[in-house]
TrEMBL record, chain A:
It comes from the Eukaryota. The keyword Nucleus applies. Residues 79-156 form the S1 motif domain. Keywords: DNA-directed RNA polymerase, Nucleus, Transcription. The lineage of its organism: Eukaryota, Viridiplantae, Streptophyta, Embryophyta, Tracheophyta. This is DNA-directed RNA polymerase subunit.
UniProtKB/TrEMBL annotation, chain B:
Belongs to the eukaryotic RPB4 RNA polymerase subunit family. Residues 13-29, 68-83 have a biased composition (Polar residues). InterPro entries: HRDC-like_sf (IPR010997), RNA_pol_Rpb4/RPC9_core (IPR006590), Rpb4-like (IPR045222), Rpb4/RPC9 (IPR005574), Rpb4/RPC9_sf (IPR038324). Keywords: Nucleus. One of its GO terms (cellular component) is nucleus. SUPFAM superfamilies: HRDC-like. SMART domains: RPOL4c (SM00657). Residues 127-248 form the RNA polymerase Rpb4/RPC9 core domain. Residues 1-124 are annotated as: Disordered. This is RNA polymerase Rpb4/RPC9 core domain-containing protein.
Length: 177, 253
């Protein structure tokens, strides 16, 4: 789920950047440092939308670098337990399948795939129902529910299920539209 | 009294309930494990929640006025603390309190058998900082579209690299978007807030794009708790959303 939040960060700037464009350089450094990163607490920082406030700089003893506390607004993406997401399948194997929803990777174990779907190996590994009516393979779109998230310092990894009502395949890349 | 045995508890002749998981060979229970339960249904449900939350975090007891409790308990308790924070995050003021039961139709009204899911599990465990605003996918898509247009200018500078997660998130927001204008979706779903539907639940409805009320209740189980309050409103909202969806499809053709 997307959030628009205000975060604060202490940015260090070398004195060579001081001058009339100090603020621009600070914002550029902030974007370079923060955009694209992931924190376990807030999720993936997708984009910075604005800088609210730049505090007074403090000169650090010994190095001469100056630390500025910067408050900025950003769009973050963070998955939550219980959330329903639409994801695209990226890999299928006999343990289950991996899917991607935005920057987040989700794994759906074969225990959390409906019992009537069996793994079919081959050139295009897939999960298919016994009557062949539903097939989950690479590039399929599936609706799944997040049942658990694991949070590292820099990454969020999720476990999902399609075993509940109204979950499962949305569109099949092989089917005619 | 019958049917309360459940998760490893058995009654002794003196009327107390004892855990079977004590591990003492002679059957004598250590004082720590003896937890008397009264006969009331709702109180027994409080009990199950209390023992689990007690061990997980003290976030509730130490909540500070500036709302930083959730971040503190996350630092100490990690994932496990999200259990109690799901309650805090819902803004209902904590488990067992009067406001909680009034808002959500009351835990006491649960069925006689043990409920399959406890109330916190039904809710989304949203534990974002207090100054955050949930965005629906359509809103996020519009925001990211504007940023994308700026980035197209910036990307001409070879030193600036557009992060991969931005592209992926932008693609996801655009593709998952069933409705073109976020404003109309917001107008339709905003009135639901007055009837106890949380921001997270509203976003879920907008992101999923359900067609029937049964789908909504299946995928957002926390709404089921206040079914009597919100059923007609949600059905109306779904009809209105279906109109926007349909009109967008016609425009595309």
């Amino acid at each position: 789920m997307f959030f628009h939040i205000v975060l604060e960060r202490n940015m260090q700037l070398h004195p060579r950047h001081f001058g009339p464009h100090l603020r621009d350089k600070l914002v550029a450094k902030l974007m370079k440092d923060v955009e694209g990163t992931c924190s376990g607490r807030h999720g993936f920082v997708v984009a910075i939308t604005g800088v609210e406030d730049v505090g007074k700089g403090l000169i650090r003893e010994g190095t001469g670098f100056v630390t500025f506390p910067v408050k900025y607004q950003c769009v973050v993406f963070r998955p939550f337990k219980g959330e329903i997401l639409e994801a695209v399948v990226t890999m299928v194997n006999k343990m289950g399948f991996f899917a991607e929803a935005g920057p987040v990777q989700i794994f759906v174990s074969n225990h959390l795939i409906p019992d009537d779907m069996e793994f079919q190996s081959g050139d295009v590994p897939n999960y298919t129902t016994s009557d062949g009516s539903v097939k989950i393979q690479k590039e399929s779109e599936v609706r799944l529910k997040i049942i658990g998230t694991r949070v590292d310092a820099t990454e969020i990894f999720c476990i999902g299920t399609i075993k509940d009502d109204y979950l499962g395949i949305i569109s099949d890349p092989g089917a005619a539209s | 009294m019958s049917g309360r045995g459940g998760k490893g508890f058995y009654s002794t002749p003196d009327g107390n309930y004892h855990s079977t998981r004590t591990g003492t060979p002679n059957g004598r229970q250590s004082p720590v494990d003896i937890i008397p339960i009264s006969d009331s249904e709702s109180e027994s449900e409080d009990y199950f929640e209390e023992t689990s939350t007690h061990s997980k975090s003290n976030g509730k007891a130490h909540s500070k006025p500036n709302g930083k409790a959730s971040s503190d308990s996350l630092k100490t308790g990690g994932k496990t603390s999200s259990f109690s924070e799901g309650l805090m995050g819902s803004g209902k003021g904590g488990k067992g309190s009067a406001s909680f039961s009034v808002g959500k139709g009351g835990k006491g009204s649960a069925s006689n058998a043990k409920p399959a899911k406890s109330d916190p599990e039904l809710k989304l465990e949203l534990d974002m900082p207090p100054n955050s605003r949930i965005l629906m996918d359509c809103e996020a898509a519009e925001m990211l579209q504007q940023i994308h247009e700026h980035m197209a200018i910036l990307s001409e500078d070879p030193k600036i690299k557009i992060p991969e997660s931005f592209d992926k998130a932008f693609q996801y927001a655009k593709e998952g978007n069933h409705f073109t204008t976020a404003k109309s979706v917001k107008q339709i779903l905003e009135p639901l807030k007055k009837y106890g539907v949380t921001d997270g639940e509203i976003c879920m409805i907008a992101n999923i794009g359900p067609e029937t009320i049964e789908e909504v209740y299946a995928l957002v189980p926390s709404l089921k708790a206040t079914k009597e309050l919100n059923e007609s409103l949600v059905t109306e909202a779904l009809d209105a959303l279906a109109n926007i969806k349909a009109s967008n499809l016609i425009e595309d053709e």
